[in-house]
Each structure stands twice: as C-alpha cells, then as structure tokens.
Design goal:
The chain is of the alpha/beta class. It is built from four helices and ten strands.
Length: about 180
C-alpha cells in the first residue's frame, strides 16, 4: 500500500510473451514498479513472465487464459477473487460475447464490485445495472485489430475504485549503438 493509504493498481492482460512480443515493454516494467498490486487477466503464454512479474511486483493477482498451458494452469486459478482496500475484485480471462456482457457478468459475479477480464484485446470500461464495474485493459504487447497497445492503471482509496486510466504503450526508443 502506498504512503497515502491508497492502493495503486496496474491491470494487464494478454501479454502473449514470447509469441507476440519477446518481453514486456520497459514502460510496463516501470508501471509494475509503481504499482502496489498487479492484476493480470490471463494469456501469459510463458511461465517465465509469471516468474518475472512475481519477482518484481509487490503483489500479483492473476488467472490463466485460453492460450496458457498446463504449467500456468497449475499455478494460477481460472477465476481469482480478492478484496483490496474494501473493494471486492474478481478476475477472469473470458466473459463471452460483448452483447449482454454486463448482465451476464453481474449474474455470474454477484459479490464483486469490479470484474477484470481480457481475451478480446478490446478496451472495456462499463458498469452493470447492479453496480459491477467491468474492465478490460486490452494488451500491452499485441495490438491485434486495435491502433495501439494499452494497459490500465487505477487507484483504490476509501473503499472505492477510482482514477481508472487507459494508458497507451509507447514504443521504447531504440538503444544507442556502441561504436
């Protein structure tokens, strides 16, 4: 927890390392260092990415996705439920089609305040009729049909989620050549 009593979140999904990127971008690693909790909504693909994230992050809450093999499934749940600063958070990789998502998820996760999900690589920030907030950070490494790669940051303070921001991943500047 930060000095101010707030919990800083980094929310990512669909990192697909090493299939879509050789490694997570430096910008994402800086965000990991600044976060109190990293939430990963699946499709890691590589166990080494989980190991690195657990070594560098203060805390990781993660689930496996449809592209994750038995090694990741042995270490991660399909659904994670955690309470952070009075906010009940659920994490899952897939939620099905966009049509009817809010109603479907509100029924499936009645005890959650926030549902983090991935899979579609499409950013999502909506609220269901029952107050469930649904968040999809897209992917920090795989644009797919989107214009840019992204992740989410957010803050939990006074028992509420706030300051949710979709952050664009900038391409890292080329490293200087030694000559």
């Amino acid at each position: 927890m930060s000095d101010t009593g707030t919990i800083r979140l980094l929310i990512v999904s669909d990192t697909h390392v090493p299939k879509r990127a050789r490694e997570l971008p430096a910008q994402v690693w800086r965000a990991v260092a600044a976060a109190d909790v990293v939430v990963h909504a699946g499709d890691w693909v590589d166990l080494a990415t989980l190991d690195l994230l657990e070594a560098r992050a203060k805390r990781v809450v993660g689930v496996y996705g449809n592209n994750d093999g038995s090694d990741l499934r042995a270490r991660l749940p399909e659904v994670a439920d955690v309470e952070l600063g009075g906010v009940r958070l659920a994490v899952v990789h897939e939620t099905g089609p966009a049509a009817g998502r809010e109603q479907r998820c509100a029924l499936k996760f009645p005890d959650a305040d926030v549902l983090v999900f991935g899979h579609s690589h499409i950013p999502w920030d909506t609220t269901a009729a029952n107050g469930l907030r649904l968040l999809n950070p897209r992917s920090p490494t795989d644009r797919r049909r989107q214009l840019e790669c992204t992740y989410l940051t957010a803050v939990i303070a006074d028992g509420a989620l706030g300051d949710v921001e979709l952050v664009t991943v900038r391409r890292d500047a080329p490293r200087p050549q030694r000559g």
